[in-house]
Amino acid sequence: MASVADRIGFDVPLGHYNQTQATEVIEAITQAYEATVRAQSNPGAYKVKPPLDGFENDTIPF
Hints:
This protein is an all-alpha fold and about 60 residues long. The protein has helices spanning about 1-10, 20-40. It starts with a helix and ends in a 22-residue tail after the last helix.
């Protein structure tokens, strides 16, 4: 977020950001949050795996 705020200008209040600038800030915050969640998640911690339906190797995307 600091790099986005630096690009926009630290002297600009949040309420004066235009839509593009606000979107950049929201994306930076969202990406940082997602990276933190991914770093803290541990798929091996789940003891129950979803049931397999026998179609795991099909090329159908759903």
